[in-house]
User: Which sequence fits this backbone?
């Protein structure tokens, strides 16, 4: 499942992604299309070691696409342009 949220004061936004199951599933290299004007993308998710902390990783953008691994817990993809 994917939901998109846009910052009302800028072009920044976030894609919220999760498999939509309760099977502890991880989708490897999920193909997510992003806006062609986006120049940065970061994956943010909860860490297994400490569920109260988040981990942030930069993602490579190729052909308006990022390929994050998506675990059962919601993963957020922050982009600098979501329009």
Assistant:
């Amino acid at each position: 499942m994917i939901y998109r949220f846009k910052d009302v004061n800028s072009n920044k936004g976030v894609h919220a992604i999760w498999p939509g199951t309760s099977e502890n599933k991880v989708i490897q290299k999920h193909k997510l299309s992003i806006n062609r004007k986006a120049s940065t993308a970061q994956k943010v998710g909860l860490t297994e070691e400490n569920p109260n902390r988040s981990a942030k990783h930069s993602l490579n953008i190729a052909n308006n696409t990022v390929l994050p691994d998506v675990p059962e817990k919601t993963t957020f993809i922050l982009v600098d342009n979501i329009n």
